[in-house]
Write a structure and sequence with these properties.
The N and C termini lie far apart (61 Å). The chain folds into 3 domains: 7-185, Thiamin diphosphate (ThDP)-binding fold, Pyr/PP domains (Rossmann fold, 3-Layer(aba) Sandwich); 196-350, TPP-binding domain (Rossmann fold, 3-Layer(aba) Sandwich); 370-481 and 494-519, Rossmann fold, CATH 3.40.50. The longest helix has 21 residues, at 341-361. The protein contains 21 helices and 18 strands. α1 packs across α2 (35-43), α9 (224-234) runs parallel beside α12 (323-333) and α14 (370-380) crosses α15. It is globular and about 85 Å long. The strands form 4 sheets. The chain has a 6-stranded parallel sheet, with helices on both faces. It is α/β, with parallel strands linked by helices and 579 residues long. β17, α19 and β18 (514-519) form a beta-alpha-beta unit. Residues 9-123 form the Thiamine pyrophosphate enzyme N-terminal TPP-binding domain. Pfam families: TPP_enzyme_C (PF02775), TPP_enzyme_M (PF00205), TPP_enzyme_N (PF02776). It is an enzyme of class 1 (oxidoreductase). Keywords: Pyruvate, Thiamine pyrophosphate.
């Protein structure tokens, strides 16, 4: 630098760009190829917090969880070679769930690049698929700009940006005038207003439907009140994807749950009988493979993303609009109507289903099951508790037994469904919302993949409540093998880990994390996509065996309620939609 010119290291400028975008913490493990950025983080430690994890995968999963919880970009890093490749599972989780994450990846210094040096490789192809933006920095002067660009792109694409950083660049001095952050210029796109003519046609179709259903996804997260209002006005039962659970209170009498996979019985049955479906903010990934809408005469869609319109089923009417804006206008155009037989049958079916769940949750005999554990979680959960939920049977059971309202937040690996996300998600949740109660709910299969980072919760005094459901099996995969494989179970059972030795707790902690090892049975949750209750399709012996196995003596078919209220059931049913 010339005399009198104010300078800054490129690494500190990089970190200051992060700070300008509102990043207050990031996750990773240092290495020789990343130590120059560690120097910068130490210099800025009063303004940004480095969270040391015990596996880079956990850091990437936690960064994705930050984005899911707050909408703000999550940041993680790894050193060259294995440190960076360890990030991949968390980065794909972020990509598939369309949340902004920035990954910083170390690289050998520029003097040794392309020389086949230690841990040096061509990193760009590795991250080309997962990253919507994927570059290698080539000079200290442009490094802050590249980071700023990466963050803008992550937000614009609702996805992952990856920047590889040769280790010598962040140590180099650049002029203060050589960098700036564009964070103050960032604006969210304006919400599209719905086409009034199309909205009128959609409303008319919805009003004239005999057996309508509303099937919403997480794109309707801000429209819960409007969904409830429309349901009550037109007496339309509600279905949601599993990730959208909680947008409407689970206790709503006409909330049927989610359909097909990780499903609840009322939604599965209603979807096969509905003549009209309003598909809102939804990207249901099993729609095609399960033929979920094969019995739907009229498919109506509202989505803010033009790429989603008509994606999962041919739409009679598709409207590009924000869900909340569109539903407000629909609600203003319709009047309340009396209960219909379709509505009454669905409400009765939900009540029967919830009685079945309550019976399981309140059992006082036999082996401990997941249902009773989740009932205990409901009993101690605060009104605005946050739930980080791992992948597997815990998704199915939490979907049915965990009681949520719009005050809660719950999240998992929605589309990538990677095991091990429970612990990282709880770390992120306590960092983002230190004053809220946070649960990690995980099976022993998923928990064992990232169990080492319970130490991270302890190290940073993050009082998460970790509930591990232990039954020595990958339950969800075992259930799939029962349905699809010709042989005995293969690779789905394993030796026990006594998680109580990892952490012991007698009460809910207030300042430190706890781990509760709930040793449960290996019972399969009721497969609502393969019910054996219909006497027209199954023998009395088959029905009795099914009821006995799943404790379903009092469970009724939706067809019984349709008949009770004067409707004729069709022969529709949804396929499983597995692999």
């Amino acid at each position: 630098m010339t005399e009198g010119t104010s300078s800054i290291t490129a690494g500190v400028a990089l970190v200051k760009v992060l700070e300008a975008w509102g990043v207050d913490h990031l996750y990773g493990i240092p290495g020789g190829s990343f130590n120059s950025v560690m120097d910068a983080l130490e210099a800025e430690k009063d303004r940004i917090h480095y969270i040391q994890v015990r596996h880079e995968e956990v850091g990437a999963m936690a960064a994705a969880a930050d984005a899911k919880l707050t909408g703000k970009i999550g940041v993680c890093f790894g050193s060259a070679g294995p440190g960076g490749t360890h990030l991949m599972n968390g980065l794909y989780d972020a990509r598939e769930d369309h949340v902004p994450v920035l990954a910083l990846v170390g690289q050998f210094g520029t003097s040794g690049m392309n020389m086949d040096t230690f841990q040096e490789m061509n990193e760009n192809p590795i991250y080309a698929d997962v990253g919507a933006y994927n570059v290698t920095a080539v000079s200290a002067k442009t490094l802050p700009h590249v980071i700023d660009e990466a963050i803008r792109r992550a937000y614009a694409n609702s996805g992952v940006s990856v920047v590889q950083i040769p280790v010598d660049l962040p140590w180099q001095e650049i002029a203060q005038s050589d960098w700036y952050a564009s964070a103050s210029s960032y604006q969210k796109p304006l919400l599209p207003q719905p086409d009034s003519d199309l909205l009128g046609k959609l409303t008319d179709q919805l009003v004239s439907a005999k057996r309508p259903g509303i099937y919403y996804g997480i794109g309707a997260r801000d429209a819960g009140d409007e969904i409830l209002e429309l349901s009550k006005k037109l007496k339309i039962p509600l279905m949601s994807t599993y990730p959208a659970k909680g947008i409407v209170p689970d206790s709503y009498p006409a909330y049927l749950g989610s359909a097909n996979r990780v499903a609840q019985k009322p939604a599965n049955e209603a979807l096969a009988q509905a003549d009209t479906v309003l598909f809102i903010g939804n990207n249901y990934p099993f729609a095609e493979v399960s033929n979920a809408f094969q019995h739907t005469a009229h498919f109506l869609q509202i989505d803010i993303d033009p790429a989603k319109l008509g994606k999962r089923h041919q739409a009679d009417i598709a409207i590009l609009a924000d869900a909340k804006l569109a539903l407000q206008q629909i609600n203003a155009a319709v009047s309340e109507r009396p209960e219909t037989p379709w509505w009454q049958a669905n409400v009765a079916n939900v009540a029967n289903w919830r009685d079945y769940l309550a019976m399981l949750e309140n059992k006082q005999f036999g082996n401990l099951q997941a249902y009773q554990v989740l009932k205990a979680v409901n009993d101690i959960a605060e009104d605005d508790a946050i739930f980080s939920i791992d992948a597997g049977d815990i998704n199915l059971n939490a979907n049915r037994d965990l009681q949520l309202t719009p005050k809660n937040q719950h999240f998992t690996s929605n589309l990538f469904a990677t095991m091990g996300v429970g612990i990282p998600g709880a770390i992120a949740a306590k960092l983002d919302f230190p004053n809220r109660q946070v649960f990690n709910l995980a099976g022993d299969g998923g928990a064992s993949m990232t169990m080492q980072d319970l130490v991270t919760q302890v190290q940073y005094h993050l009082p998460a409540i970790n509930v591990i459901f232990s039954n020595q099996q990958y339950g969800f995969i075992k259930d799939e093998q029962e349905d699809t494989n010709q042989n005995d179970y293969i690779g789905v059972e394993f030796d026990d880990i006594d998680f109580s030795k990892v952490a012991e707790a007698a009460e809910i902690a207030k300042t430190e994390p706890v781990l509760i090892d709930a040793v449960i049975s290996g019972d399969r949750p009721l497969p609502v996509e393969n019910l054996q209750l219909d006497p027209a399709k199954f023998s009395p012996e088959e029905i009795e065996t099914f009821k006995k196995r799943y404790e379903a003596q009092d469970l009724k078919l939706f067809a019984d309620f349709l008949t009770q209220f004067g409707l004729t059931p069709n022969d529709g049913q949804s396929a499983q939609g597995g692999f």
